Structure prediction request, 244 residues.
Amino acid sequence: MIPRLTLVIPAYNESQLLPRLLDTVDVARARYRHGADAIEVIVADNGSTDDTAAIAAARGCRVVPVVPRNIGAVRNGGAREARGELLCFVDADGQVHPEVFNVVDELLSSGKYSVGATGVRPERWSVGIAVTWVLLVTLVTLTRVDTGLIFCRRDDFIAVGGYDERWYAAEDIMLHLALMRLGRTRRQRAVLARRVKGIASLRKFEKYGDWHYLTMLPEGLRILRQRGAPTPLAREYWYSDTRD
Prediction:
């Protein structure tokens, strides 16, 4: 059958955490009102040197090799192979809510929204993580741009040109803004699907410390002001060859 919804998972050396994500995806697929077979899962493998591709294939995912070490290119590579009319994107180290696909279908079928995101909650809390989350929630409320599982219609994704591959980070923000602009031409808006929040991996907090988002804020703002090759810090943060 032709799937109604496609989930794209970009992955680079994710053999440790990908199975955990796929476990949650399997639960959500089983609860999808159109049936599990109406959802296809694509793992866009960005040249992994571990068992990422083999694990994905063994779990019934379509594995799409993507060469450029650019997260936007990896997401686009998976999306090009998508057959579903609804597109979802989630990172390989996250976890999804059991009802996420039902809610995504409901929201996009309403015709009110051009793009949406579920948001996330952290795996654990600390003072530093709580302060970071308050800051991020404030920004999300003001901008309507969130993280977690991102979703839109495939036709709209194609219409805006997909992810802008000139960005080595913040590419999801740029896609959100492009789809929001498209939506305004049809009186549609962005939606925050907070009732189906995912769970965010905290491996970067484990590596860089619970307060690192705040100390790296100037670098993040610098990234938002420029395209092209990432700074050394951004390359280390997002494109490290190791997984912790």
Q: What stands out?
A: Residues 127-143 form the longest helix (17 residues).
